[in-house]
Amino acid sequence: MATHTVTHLVDDIDGNAADETISFTIDNARYEIDLSQQNAANFRKAMREYVDHARRVGGPVAKQQFTGVDVAAVRAWAQSRHITVKTRGRLSADVIAQYRAAGN
Q1: Residue 6 — left, alpha, or beta (φ > 0 → left; ψ -120 to 50 → alpha)?
Q2: How far apart are CA 42 and CA 57, in angstroms?
Q3: CA distance 37 to 49
Q4: Integer CA distances (angstroms), 77 to 35, 55, 82, in order
Q5: Mind listing the pLDDT tens digit for each residue in 30-89?
Q6: What is the pLDDT of residues 46-60, one digit of tens each?
Q7: Among 21, 29, 80, 90, which residue has the least CB neighbours within 10 Å?
Q8: Which domains does the chain have, with CATH numbers?
């Protein structure tokens, strides 16, 4: 039996369909938020004044050890197998390893 998992992003602000996930860091804490195009534009507009006056530190933010993994698909896969995962934020390396070991 084959299964097909479909993951839909939901805008964290208004509950409508989201188009992207934005990652940001403030006070040494990393955050992710799923937003529609309009809310993403509003977020960037709100941050622009602060970014324009800020000092850039270092290069690009380091990527997670496991790149090329659809985080939403991993979450859906884990939840369907009753593996506890957070609904937002970084996935554990163990969960990603299990996902890959399952042939995904």
Answers
A1: beta
A2: 24
A3: 20
A4: 22, 40, 9
A5: 888 999 999 999 999 999 999 899 988 876 655 544 446 788 888 889 889 998 888 887
A6: 999 998 999 888 766
A7: 29
A8: 7-61 (3.30.60.230), 63-104 (4.10.320.10)
